[in-house]
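I am writing to request your help with a piece of structural work I have in hand. A protein sequence and the C-alpha cells that stand for its backbone fold form the material at issue. Please examine both parts with care and let me know of anything in them that strikes you as inconsistent. The record follows directly beneath this note.
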Amino acid sequence: MIDKVHRRLSRMREDGRLIELLKGSGLVLMFKILGALGGYVFAILISKWAGPSGYGVFELATTAIMIVAVLSRLGLESAIVKYISSFHIEQKFGQIRRIYGISALAVLALSTLLGLLFVYFADTVALWFSDEQDVVLLTQCFEWVGYLTPVFALLQLNAEALRGLKRMGDYSLLQNGTIMLLSVLFLWLLMENETVTGLTAVQAYAGAIVILTLVSFVMLLRSHKRDLNGTDSEKIDFKQVLKTAFPMFVSGSVYLVMSWTDTLMVGAYMSDESLGVYRFAFKMATLITFAQFAINSIAAPMISGFSTQKNVGGLRAIIHQISWLNLTLSFPVFVVFFFFPEWVLETAVGESFADGATSLRILAIGQVVNALCGPVMNTLNMSGYEKDTQQIMLWTAGLNLLLNFIAIPSMGITGAAVATTISMVIWNLVAGYKVYRYFNIISLPIPWRWRPK
C-alpha cells in the first residue's frame, strides 16, 4: 500500500501538467485569497457603515453592470481564450493580434451604446427595485453603471486575452478580487468627505475598475512585445469566431441571469435589507469555490490545447487532478459553513445578518457540488461543445427562474437559496454526464481504480 502511494506521488511530481497547474493556480489562488479578503472587508465595511440596505443597493448596482457587460461582450471574451490559446500553440501570432483588435472594437462600440441606454433609462429601472423614497439614490447608482460599462467590458476582454496567452500572473491581477482590494482603498478615501451609502460603494468600485483597465492595456502592450514578437496582424475568418462566440455568449448570458435571478427577484419582492443579508450569505458561500476558480483559470487554456491536439489522455489526466485538488481545498470550508453558519455570519458582520444562516447552509451545498464536479463547463466550452453548455444553461435558467418565482414569495431569502442550489446541482450533474459521454471521463474525485481507462 505504501509503495503504491510512493509510486503515485512520484508520477505526480514528474507530471509537467500538474506542476504547471499548481504553479499557475497557486498564483491565481494567492490573488484570489487576497481579493476575497478585500471583498469581504469591503462588504463588511459597507454593511457596518451603510447597513444591510446600503449593501443591498450596492449589490443591485453591481448586478446591473455584470448583466450589461455580458451583453456587450457577445461571448467574445470566452471565444478568444480558445482561439488565442490555439494560435499561440501553432505560433500564429499575427492572427492573435487581429482577433483581439476586432474583438476589442466590437466590444467597445456595443458596450458604449448599451451603457448610454442604461443611463437614459436609469430612473425607470430603479423604480422596479425601490420605492419612491430611495429611487433617487438607486438611479444615481445605475447612472454610474451605464458610464462604467465600456470600461468594465474592456477590462474583462483584456483579462481573457492574457489568459489565452497563459499570462496567468497578469490575468490574476485583473480579477474581481483586485477590484475589491482597490475598492477598499477608494472607500477609505471617499468616507473622509461624505457619509457612506450604497452610492459611495459604487463610486469606490468604479475607481478601482478604471485603474485596473488602464493597467490591463499596459500588460497587453508588454505581452505583444514578449509573446508575439511585435508581429503585424494577419487576416482571420472573424465570422467563424462569432459562430464560436455566440453559443458561449448565450450560455454565459444565461449563466449570469441564473446567477443573478435570485438577487433581482429578492430585490423586487423584498426590502434592500433582506437583499443585503442574502447577498452577504451568498458571498460567504462562494468561498467554497474560490480555489476552484483559480484552478479552472489555469486549466481552460490547457484543456483547449489538449482538445486541439486530440489528446484525450492528457485531458483525462488534468481533469482527474483538478477534481482531487477541488476536493482537498473546498470540502473543509464547506464543513465549517454547513455546520456553523450562525457563527460565520455573526463573526463577520454581527447579529443583524444572522437571519441568513439557513441560506448560507443551503448555498454551501450547491457550491460544494459545483467544486466537486470539476471543470465540466470549461471542458465542454474549450472542446467544441459550446452548444451543449448553451442548452444546459438555457434549461437550468428556466428552472431557476420558475423556482425563484415560486419560492421567494413564500419562503423569502431561504427560497432564493433553495432555487439557486437546485439549479446549480442540476447543471453540474448534466454537464458532468456530457463530459463522460463524449470523452469517457468521470470528473468526480473518485478512486483511481473505479475510473474508466
User: Anything to note?
Assistant: The two ends are 21 Å apart (CA to CA). Residues 1-6 have pLDDT under 50 and may be disordered. The chain has one domain: 2-447.
